[in-house]
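Hi L., both proteins are below.
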Amino acid sequence: MDYRQALEKCNERYGFRRIITDCGSTLCGVLLDQGLVNMISLVITPAMIGKESAGLFRKTGKPCLNLEPLRQETFSGGHLHVLYRISEQ
């Protein structure tokens, strides 16, 4: 599926220019690989997980994403929300 074309059609038909999604590794990988993401918002939980857990960005074909931190906020329990801009470096 051509997600860029689908999003352009949605923009033409409904007039929206921004999509916010809560996605897993497959959709994140597709959107990142097609260059459709310019910001990533992460909530980091202070917990270690085992080796059987799925990585959020493991299905992208990109070897590295350069992220520029824009802001961060700490919540109760040590949770951290960080907003990053994807840079083209």
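That was the first. Here is the second:
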Amino acid sequence: MSLLVHMTPDRIPIRLSKKEQEYPKEVLDELFEEYTIGTIRSKLTELVHTALIEDDRYNNPKNRSDLLAFYIKLERGLETAYVLNFLKRKDSLSDS
């Protein structure tokens, strides 16, 4: 069953397909196959640095594209964590 039935509009994941909402662990597997936790920290630092300080490295379209792709994957990972947390809370309420 889709999570959309149980979530208010402000809580619906926008980056995850219905299938990914049903099998959220696959999204995290994909994220962590591509990025280690150290790489994630480094990329987050790059995002913050780029947002706060002008950096010539990001005048190159490929570098901007790579950083944006990382951001989207990270956002999908966060949505997945949100879905897993939602399912865990829903299950614990139904067990009560």
